Amino acid sequence: MQAGPPTAPVPPFPPPRPETGPWPVVAAAATGVWAVLVTVPGQLVGWVVDQLVLVSGVDRSVAVWPVVALVTVLLVGAPTLALALLPRSPAVRATGRAWLAGTLVLGALTLLRALPPVHHEAYLAALAAAAALLALALARLARRRPSAPPVAAAPPASLRTPAGPDDGAAGAGGRAGRFGPVTLLAVAAGLASLLPWAWVGALGGAPETLLAGLAAAALGALAGVLLGPAFWAAFAVGTPPRPARLVLVGGLVAGVTLALLAAGAGQSGAHLPGLLLLPPLGFVLGALEAAARHAGRAAGPRPVRWLVGLALLGPLAFTDPEEITVLLATTRDVPFWVAVATGVAFAVAVLLAVGYGVLLARPRARAPRRGLAGLAAGALLAALVVVYAVPGQPGLHGERLLVVLREQADLTGIPAGAPGRAGRDARAAEVYRRLVATAERSQGDLRRELDRLRLHPTPYYLVNAIETDGGPAVRAWLAGRPEVARVLVSQQLRPLPAAAPPTRGEVPAPTGPTWNVSLIGADRVWSELGVTGAGVVVGSSDSGVDGRHPALAAGFRGGDDSWYDPWEHRPTPADRGGHGTHTVGSAVGRNGIGVAPGASWVGCVNLDRNLGSPARYLDCLQFMLAPFPPGGNPLTDGRPHRAPDVLTNSWGCPPVEGCDPGALRPATAALAAAGILVVAAAGNTGPYCGSIADPPAPYPDVLTVGAVDRARRLTEFSSRGPAVGGAAKPDLVAPGAGVPSAFPGGGYATLDGTSMATPQVAGAVALMWSANPALVGDLNRTRRILAETATPAGAPADAPCGGTRNLVGAGLVDAYAAVRAARAADLG
């Protein structure tokens, strides 16, 4: 029985209209080159500007992408409009119409990048809706135009596909086709393009993956309208039509159109792979059109939809645009693997273009058989599943949400207690008790509801909050609950196909105190005052610590509550990135690199791959207030009497990681109430005024540290104040340019940054508290001594940003003077 109504016979194609000479073709070629030269650099410039803004720490400019869109539309739209209206050649006018429509689509879709990258699901939903609406609008406009000429006459029966179903329209304006061999070959090509992404990429959460699929499908539908039957009919001249013209000329024009579409398809960074992947697929589409016309049929829009949709699904679904960043580009992280997937997918696209062109577009090639096409598509689908499940990263790895509750613990009236560690321990215990009691009382109903919905809630107490699974719908529901203050996105890094190689130190071991240690007088504290920091514990929240490094191994406090890795749950101290090893070395390292070599250290990993999230920062700060054993429950198994004395924090939580300005404010307030001094880096986003913005650096109860060089001059990169609300920041400065310290593997490295300055101030506090244990936990007196003993630091002569207090704070930390003042302090 017949599967559907028979295909109408195809009338012969009328002889082509005489060309007007070579100039329309030359104009079309020049316009195509111009379109590519404007579009591709413009998209790269937009992404680079985004990255510079991210690295510099200034507020993200919403106007960047609208400006890129406007400039591209104006520069490319004018010549393509002329090409669509003026020449007499149908092929040239079809070229102009396709490129003009592609330019307008690019402009419209690029505007969506005004949405912050942290709200990726919202962007994908907007992309899917916008692409679908554009496809409907362009399809309606196409129906209003006069119908294109019908396709060429059917070839002899010997060249037709035997008993094969129709694969497209029965002519340029004919009936929609069924799922035939040409469509199956398009599916096979799309699956082949998707294979590299399934190998090296990782899916996000369920809502994110679903929305990425919808966006890819909508973009495929949009491509089907841009490269519909009327487009290909303009290049199918002759009786029968010449396959080479369809593949080479039509494919080239289609490739430029797809480049314009790709430029708008994806958030900043995620759109770059499509600029390289889609253009070669234009030649594949030309070969598929030629194959369909071997059987006397136009391919129709369905092959275009499948091929483009599947090709775009890779970068849209298997990458997170927030991770395609220069912050991760220094190691074999997501940017590296995206480049690998893009390169392999590009090679696949080129091979498909050549292979399909040779096999399907020869003058006397046989039309493709449905069975063989179906077998190819099925085999590639099976290969895709195997690649995703075995060498790939199966599962869902989406973002989580941090739900901050309105009620936060009341920490007023904490008794000061006895001076020194005994009083500090008593305060820490009371703070821990109040925080946990508040969390247990106020979170119960919400946690039960989240458990019922199987959203896997994780409670926090340092900030009264819950981390949970959920997409935009869950976020909207949570934000509407009366007990919820706000809902933040808690970033989750997607897994890599292979771990980045561990960083190693290449600098020789120092032969004595390093220059920075001597500059602040720490070596004089050891030699003249006999104080090395013994009895004081420094806590580090960073990328980890190489616990076997010869300068650090002896300083590890030990026990079952001195190390915590919430990312990978490694049982012993380790560090792949090196940043945490370097900072701990500057605080307490032996062999001349640390300010307080006699102090002990404990560690926590909050930056596994140089990106964090509000929840991972909280994990480590909670561990510092009340350490717990492996597998312990922070709310019930915490040991506040084992809290370190001073914390060094060479990190900040910017909006790209999900933090807002107040995200960690209750955490640092609680640590201060417990008598634990939080030392934090000012940031490396200078010389802009007001650039001390990312938590926790702006908070008043945090000791914020900027950076100077060997000549005691403020470094260009050191962030400036004032902080939010006009508070003067930083509080102090310390050496931060060319600082040598420990690095994983037993070696050493020299690094720049306020990250390097911060642990030296923490080390100076350790020396002060070791010299006078009664000062432990007395944060106000400690801060006052540090400020009063600081020495002048060089600042710009014009003293911008409201004066030198917002540049260098009280000045350069002087460990020697501070320890002498601490010893002489009257604590009666």
UniProtKB/TrEMBL annotation:
The active site is at D542, H579, S755. InterPro entries: Peptidase_S8/S53_dom (IPR000209), Peptidase_S8/S53_dom_sf (IPR036852), Peptidase_S8/S53_subtilisin (IPR051048), Peptidase_S8_Ser-AS (IPR023828), Peptidase_S8_subtilisin-rel (IPR015500). It comes from the Bacteria. Keywords: Hydrolase, Membrane, Protease, Serine protease, Transmembrane, Transmembrane helix. Residues 533-793 form the Peptidase S8/S53 domain. Belongs to the peptidase S8 family. The chain crosses the membrane at residues 23-44, 64-86, 98-116, 122-139, 179-199, 211-234, 246-266, 272-291, 303-319, 334-359, 371-390. This is S8 family serine peptidase. It comes from Micromonospora halotolerans. Residues 154-169 have a biased composition (Low complexity). Residues 148-172 are annotated as: Disordered. It holds the Pfam family Peptidase_S8. The keyword Transmembrane helix applies.
